[in-house]
Amino acid sequence: MLLRTTVVKNLGSSLAPDGCVRHCRIRANTWCRWRIQARRRYGFLPDDVKSVRSVVNPDVSKIRNIGIMAHIDAGKTTTTERMLYYSGYTHSLGDVDDGDTVTDFMAQERERGITIQSAAVTFDWKEHRINLIDTPGHVDFTLEVERALRVLDGAVAVFDASAGVEAQTLTVWRQADKHHVPRVCFLNKMDKPGANLSYSVESIKKKLKANPILLQIPIGSGKGFTGLVNLVTSQRMMWPQSDDSNGRVFVTKPLSSSDDPELLRHVREARNNLIEQVKAVSYIYLVLDRMYLTVFFLCAKLQMAVRRVTLAQKGVPVLCGSALRNKGVQPLLDAITAYLPAPNERHHDLVQWYGNDLCALAFKVVHDKQRGPLVFVRIYSGALKAQSAVHNINRNTTERMSRLMVPFADQHIEIPSLTAGNIALTVGLKQTVTGDTIVASKSSASQAARRLLELEEKKVKGSDKEAETLILAGVEVPDPVFFCTIEPPTMAKQADLDHALACLQREDPSLKVKTDPDSGQTILCGMGELHIEIIHDRIRREYSLETYLGPLQVAYRETVLQSGCAVDTLDRTLGDRRHVVTASLQVSPREETACDIAYGEGVAENLAPDLKDAVENGIHSAYLQGPLLGFPAQGVTTVVQAVSVQSGTSVAMVSACVSRCMLKAMKQAGGQVLEPLMSLEITVEAEHLSLVLGDLAQRRGSIQDIQSRQDCKVVLASVPLAETMGYSTMLRTLTSGSATFSMQLSSYEAMNPEIQSALVNKMAGLA
């Protein structure tokens, strides 16, 4: 009897349109019988922790590959923790502050209370398999979000209901737009005193330019938040205030005329708005004549319409709750299965050429001390099997995969095979890196190429359609903005440091390592202060190396101020061969960020293909070192006016001559340093606003806007990256620890002449 009571209470969390008590009872009885059989067969107990093995290869329509994305501290990891608990995969609730959550398993994550690297977990919910990736919210680790969204079919955007859309929310939302990922919004922290549903929904509409479709409204606010109303089913869900079940037990019942009149009015208005919104963008016509339709049928039609709108990305369902207070997470899980797409509902053009053969994308690599490199792959077609050989198209290599596993944070379950639509973890792929395409064999790739070629031959000649490729699109890696030197404790440890950096680079493509050609020092390039700090700490902990970091420096860019021409001749004899090259080039500024190469009239036609490649290699090499400080150049157009090459001259000498000529031309054109500007968003109490603005003025900051958010002020500003060093500590000091801020790279802008002169002198050792 106790089992049946619990089931009826929890059934209300489902978004399935059970509009009347009779349908709910039928489903409850059916579900109870199934559950009792499952217990009898598998021996489950209520407090048992499930195994990932319980749902290994479900039907592809029952799979959901989703990511949790948000601004830092919006509650992503807490929400993930509740999902695992309610689905039966953990026996207790972890807490970010206590450092015992499943997905934040790195020592650095548990110490700082933030997510640093994305973590994948697999669990089932109501006969659906959910492959979930919890992503970081800090701007320094935005690549983790980028490569997760690249392979996911849907996403849950988590918002702080008291803040609405924040700075990093905009960034991850744009990333999801780029990959055309359908989304569901979850307004978290509805229990906070400043939580505001209307404000949050309006900020989604205005700042994200999205069409929010409200599916739930809260009952109560702040500390009085006790439940919510499902607008699709017109049912309310109430969680008891003193809850010993950690949110597992809640009461669901239809709204009745005896409920609060103000709540009923609010629900009626919100539901009518929901229906009108869906009707405006959905092809499904919702008939509202209650004499003709049952409540059950209306709910089914409404849910179908919301799903279609979501998959077409014409709207985003909005739900609410409080993950920390264990309210609203089960309805969110129901929304994931009801509204986000299955893998077979997402279209990937390239997969058609492989048919039923394997086609997968490697999107993440981690290093394990016992197993070696572990490669995360998304399977788009075919199946992966342990102890099988696979072919890497990007590297043109064949490797043997020794083991295959299902990821569950840092604890993985070994399995024999996995089918299309899933995310897997492989052992033994030592050459594979992020962005590589994996297929069954070289012959499989050849067959796919033949199919593609046959289609290309059928096309009408003269078609300007871009040629298709057999390689899945990889992951775009942003350029680093900070760099510093790193040195081992002794020269005997240099090889160990090189090995550690090579492993970390393979894991994190946004980390760049290079060697200074003059001093021979190792240069570490990263996305921010925290990024480099984490790398330094990982080298110490994971590789037992006490390395020394030099002072952080900003990764500037350079450009030219005006047009400049140069002619250079290289005449050198090596052995018995004489190499003679003469190059004439012109450089000029351009508005676009990227650099460009053009040829004068008749020049390109008179150059052999290998000489033309050598010329372009020389120009690209010169772009890597600007004329003033040796930083990479951008916004420069180079016109090759003439190239004369004596017979017998090597292509390397051609590149060297062109590169030297480029440097002359850029110096003649006048160099300009471009400094990175950061978009800064500061949330501060009104009493500390003047102190914060004064500090920004001293940092050469430009105030863009000052907005009001509940009882706080939100300052939007642009500040040079060089001036943000140590800003976190200063902001805490000025505001007694009450203010928060986030920043991200905005653009590169020309530096003030006086500051540029001081920087040049400093870099030259004159200041």
Automatic annotation (TrEMBL):
The keyword Mitochondrion applies. GO terms for biological process: mitochondrial translation; ribosome disassembly. PROSITE patterns: G_TR_1, G_TR_2. One of its GO terms (molecular function) is GTP binding. CDD domains: EF-G (cd01886), EFG_III (cd16262), EFG_mtEFG_C (cd03713), mtEFG2_II_like (cd04092). It catalyses: GTP + H2O = GDP + phosphate + H(+). It holds the Pfam family EFG_IV. The keyword Magnesium does not apply. Keywords: GTP-binding, Hydrolase, Mitochondrion, Nucleotide-binding, Protein biosynthesis. Residues 61-344 form the Tr-type G domain. SUPFAM superfamilies: EF-G C-terminal domain-like (SSF54980), P-loop containing nucleoside triphosphate hydrolases (SSF52540), Ribosomal protein S5 domain 2-like (SSF54211), Translation proteins (SSF50447). Coiled coil: none annotated. GO terms for cellular component: mitochondrial matrix. This is Elongation factor G2.
